[in-house]
Amino acid sequence: MAQDPDQAKKLQELLKMLSLSQNDASKLTQPQRKQFEEYKFWKTQPVPRFDDEVEDEGPINSSQRPENIPNEPLPLLSEFEWCTVDITDPHQLEDVFVLLNENYVEDQDATFRFNYSREFFNWSLKPPGWRKDWHVGVRTRQSKRLVAFISAVPATLRVRTKLVKSVEINFLCIHKKLRSKRLTPILIKEVTRRVNKQDIWQALYTAGVVLPSPAATCRYAHRPLNWSKLYEVGFTGLPANASKTQMIAKYTLPKEIDTPGLRPLEEKDLDEVYDLLEKYQSRFDLVQVFTKEEFRHLLLSSTSVVYSYVVESNNKITDFVSFYSLPFTVLNNPHYKELGIGYLFYYASDADFDYSDRYDSEGSLKLKKRLNRLISDVCIKARDLKMDVFNAMSCQDNSLFLDDLKFGPGDGFLNFYLFNYRVRPILGGLRKDNSFDAEKRSNVGVVML
What we know:
Number of strands: 18
CATH topology of the largest domain: Aminopeptidase
Number of domains: 2
Oligomer: single chain
Order of helices and strands: HEEHEHEEEHEEHHEHEHEEEEEHEEE
Number of helices: 9
CATH architecture of the largest domain: 3-Layer(aba) Sandwich
Structural class: alpha+beta
């Protein structure tokens, strides 16, 4: 089938948005960056400036108290009203489902669109400790239609050696016809107010755009699982001097997995896997510290969204790996209605635990071999689940296997931000030319949905 150039261009635009990318901070020269004062909203917020030299890491403003936070939200334009979205109510969950599926990420001609499921929202928005009032919406006063949404979920972060009580901010979405109404800053202020009333003052959030001021920047990578389908919908082009047959052969995975003892994670494994992940995560400078209840929710609570596996050898779990599914719909295509997309989630391995130095060459080689086999098998699992592409970032120890396993570097760069917290830059697993750095690997251990 011949590839439609316009369709290919549209899908590439979506892929950039899919990785939330519009700018690459590391490629911008200082004159090209917006001056801090140009950020009309962010200059009023407790976030680091681009030129800040951080000596002492910690909160920027630590003098606030919940009793000093207003009890009422900022006023909205007369045609809108605030609401708390009760996602335990099927009708209100449906409102979120419709808003995000129609407006969250979409190319200009509405050819491609994220295909969130209701179960995905239940999984991502209702971790242990979640609060109904942290699901903030804006409705039209007359029709009561949900036209804007933002969420916060509780999270304990470890920033190098310090534990930080925090929230993760996600799913900021404004109806595409209302994006000139300046609702985004007001939504951020409102969710901040509600979180502050619970005596929480820090937040983790991500964006592809460059804001003041990234704590870390990682890059997306894509591993084709079904090259011919990706080509037909415009996900990838045909390189010069290559045939379709050659490309299909290049990305064809083995029929069977190669790791002995690889099996699905079970309830009985949770304590051992929890301890394995805790030890593995200790190597990174930015991580989420889970309770066992949170860990169980993330890895076992949704059988159609998240897929988790362990490797058991001699009655001991040596490795753990997980990924989640977030497809998108292909509109106006006579042959395909959906692309299956898998995202690498949390994993851990004891391959280099005998080495005190994470970057020891011998230990790194052992971990590299273990991860290459493990992630290759995960790609096979994803393919067997009818996923067409597998995404990962340059965070964690991913740079050890991305090139070897034929992950292509994406156009998307994801910036990690800490609200009301000053931190020195954290490695994102990239060299100066933005290629994956297998030697100075990432110190980002948190994976945002």
